[in-house]
Specification:
CATH superfamily: Hotdog Thioesterase
Strand content: 35-45%
CATH architecture: Roll
Distance between the termini: 13 Å
Shape: globular
Largest sheet: 5 strands, antiparallel
CATH topology: Thiol Ester Dehydrase, Chain A
Order of helices and strands: EHHEEEEEEH
Length: 137
């Protein structure tokens, strides 16, 4: 089952062309990522500080399909495309109504926050990610 939320495009997100500046989408994706953990019962601060697990992005693949403008509500769906031993691939789909705006896949590594070295996904997080695994891969 996918996680869904809406991000509102703010005035300061636009560039001179009057559309959301493309790097802002990475910020949006990370907000959704944090909200995903929160919805699963762990604030992102708890994940980092108490569990000692970090999830840095190590690869991005983003397709921009149509402009997003100030005031638009970007409906974002997050699912898990793949789960590895020490990483996972998150899939993001953003739309305004029926209009597709952006699609992305972001690979995150699982790291120990003290050593900044890769570690196997803890069982709790593996199970959490599996609940949101996209059956289409």
């Amino acid at each position: 089952m996918a996680f869904e939320t809406t991000i509102r495009a703010r005035f300061g997100d636009e560039d001179h062309a009057g559309i959301v500046y493309y790097p802002r989408f990475l910020d949006y994706f990370h907000r959704v990522f944090e909200d995903f953990f929160e919805a699963e019962g762990r604030s992102y601060r708890q994940v980092l500080d108490e569990d000692g697990v970090g999830w840095p992005a190590v690869h991005l693949d983003v397709d921009f399909r149509s402009p997003l403008r100030f005031g638009d509500g970007l409906q974002v769906t997050l699912s898990v495309a793949r789960i590895g031993d020490k990483s996972a691939v998150f899939r993001y789909r953003g739309a305004v109504g029926a209009r597709s705006v952006v699609a992305a896949e972001i690979t995150v590594a699982c790291i120990d926050m003290k050593s900044f070295r890769g570690v196997p996904l803890p069982a709790f997080y593996r199970a959490m990610f599996e609940r949101h695994l996209d059956p289409s891969g």
